[in-house]
Every structure is written in structure tokens, then in C-alpha cells.
Amino acid sequence: MPFFPFGVANAPGDCQRYAEAVRDVINDESQRRMLGHASLPGLESVHRSLRGLSSAQNTTDATTEVYIDDFQHLTKLLAQGLEVFQVGERVFEIVGLIEKITKREGPDRVMTLLGFTFDSTTNLLSIPPPNINEILSLIDSVLGMAGKGGAVPFVTLLSLHGKLIWAATSIELGRSQFSFLRRPNDAVAPGLHSKIHRASFLIPVFESQEMIKELKWWRMA
């Protein structure tokens, strides 16, 4: 793994760049195999299947993407995907990465990616039903208290905000619909110095009509 000379604050970006460099090696080798070219040094030992990458009609038939430490191989045919898996295994071995085999998924047209359901046929991300239910339950609890003129714990709004940031990845215009949700928490956060304070402090949500409008938008999204 890379060394972080500028501190762990830069670790996510450094890890992403390192992973992208590894991804580029896998993609380079895949391209070479689809074009019938010689393998990269150290990857000659990976078997070339007649129905694998060499059968590709186009160099876009196989590609690898990565986010931090999650590698995703996308291919048109099962045999192509299996060959890319083998290429990836060898590349990981060469650079010293240890793959967690239990986290492997596929081959499948629908898989889990960063918590979302990804359909490789339609190229669409969607939120799994359990996550939807959890988010809607939080929204309903906040809107319910707002309707009663009540308040909710600071940590409840904090949790809801975090979940909506995550959900916004797969919802069009989602990122434009939680700015007001942050404001009550941002206003009081500097004065809450412990977990006990954050857990017990109540936010009068009925006072923020803009936030209520945002939550109603999310309720219908």
C-alpha cells in the first residue's frame, strides 16, 4: 500500500489514485488481449481463453472501474469476465494487494456497488428497498415532529443528512435538496462537545420551513 507523507487526511485521494493506477494496468492488459497483442511483463502466465477477451468484437467489450478499493469488471460475455478476474488476481499479486475473496460478487447483470444496486444492462443505480425504507422512516419522523411543533435530536438530523448525501448519488437533483437540512445542525454543532450533548440536544424542526420543504421533496423523490 502507498505511504502517506502528507498525513492520513489525504489518504482517500491517494488511495483512489493508487487504485486507478492498478486499474489502468488491468485495462491495458485487457486491451492487449482484445487486440491480440503481447501481454504486459508478468501477465503472460494468465491463460487466454478462445471465448474470452480475444473474442471481443470491440475494445469496449471489457473494462474495469474502481472506487477507493472496490474494483468492478464489466464485460459482455461471462468468459471475458472470468479472464479479467484472472488478470486482476495476477496484477494484485504483483503489486502486493490482498483481495478479500468473500467480498466478490457476480458474475451478474445486477450487483451491489457502494451500497447501491447497479444494473449493468441499463447502467442505472438504484437504492435497495431496505435503505429506502430506513430513509423514509427518518424523514417521516422529522416531518411528524415538525407537524406537531416539536423537536428532534441533533443526531437524528445528522444521520438523515448523511443518508441523503449518499442517496443523492442515484437521484437526479438530489444534491440540490439538502442545503437547508444542514443549517440547524451547523448552527449548534460548534457548541456540542461530546456524544452525550449531541445525543440529547433537540432541534426545533418546526421553525425551519425551508428544511421541511426539502424533506417533502425527498419524500416524493
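the 2nd protein, sequnce then structure:
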Amino acid sequence: MRFLISGYYGFGNLGDDALLQIIISQLKTRYPHATIDVLSAEPERTAHDYGIVATPRWDQAAIRSAVASCDLLLSGGGGLLQNATSLKSLFYYAGIVRTAIRAGKKAMVFAQSVGPLDFLGKQTVRECCRGLDAATVRDAASKALFAPLVPGTRIEVTADRSSSTIPSSRSISSRPGSAMKAIRSCSSASARRRIRATASPR
């Protein structure tokens, strides 16, 4: 099993680094033989700090190769699907999701706050996330905004959940797609509050 994680990683932000540490720890516990690849602004440092594989987030050829090699793309956490920061940022993160879906890979939006999105932002998310397998979002407002853009995709609000539900390795060892049914949250509610308080805008 090979996971590819797309998010705001490698920029030295404490909140995002804390979230990445939690996600990696959970995945390593559940999937001790899995390979974890992270798209990072500083891939060498990220690989060293977390003991995983890292891919340079600005290298399009490397990103395509990482997507082609993965079984499951996790896009998150944080506020990636929004264009309050910039439309360019939204194009980047949504584009990676679209690349994975077009490559026939399982793709999940994970532990995200969605929005704000203007008309063009909504159109971008609708187009790029068509075919998304599953999503977990941090609040009801995110679900209300996201759901009409990805009809047919299962979306769960995980902000108030206290237990991790990343699936066991046995549950997806022969069926990678079943991970979509089981990944629900990546940390305790208190940890998510700390992460939310320190995470930077994209």
C-alpha cells in the first residue's frame, strides 16, 4: 500500500507540521509495511524528519510520477480547497486531486475546512473533484458548501470525533478502495483544536 499526501507541508508551519505528524503516525500504526509519500516544499528535510518518502511539490514531473505510484491520495488537512488566499493555490491543490482521479487512483479529501469559494472557485472544485471517493471535513459549513459540488461522494464531519478510525492494514490489504470506507479522522478533538489555532493560511 502506498499513500501520497498533498497539503501545505515543508513550509515550517507548526500547525501543519503537527497535523502531518499525526497523519503519518496513524498510517504507520495501521499500515506498518506501507510507503508514505508527502508532497513537500523541502522534501529532503520532510523525509528526514518523518522517516518517509517526500516529493518536491513544485516539480510537475515528480508529482505525476508520485501519483502514478500511489494507491491512495490523501488531500489534507487544513484549508486547501478555498480561494480566499489565491486562485492559484486552489488550482494547485484541486489539480493534484484531479490528476489522481484521472490516473484511476483512489482519492480522498481529508480533514479539511472547505471554503470560502467564489463562483470560479466552486467551478474549479466541481471539475477537479468529480469522481472523488470520499471526504472528511471539519465542520458542517464545509460539508454544506462541498456536498453540492461533489454529488455522490460520501462526506463526513469529523471535527467533534475523539477517536481515530484509520482502518487496519487487514481491511485494505487486498482491497485498497475499502480505505475510503474507514478513514474518518486523524486526531483527537483537542489535537485538532491546537492544530487549527496554529495553522497558517495557504
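The chain has one domain: 2-198. The radius of gyration is 15 Å.
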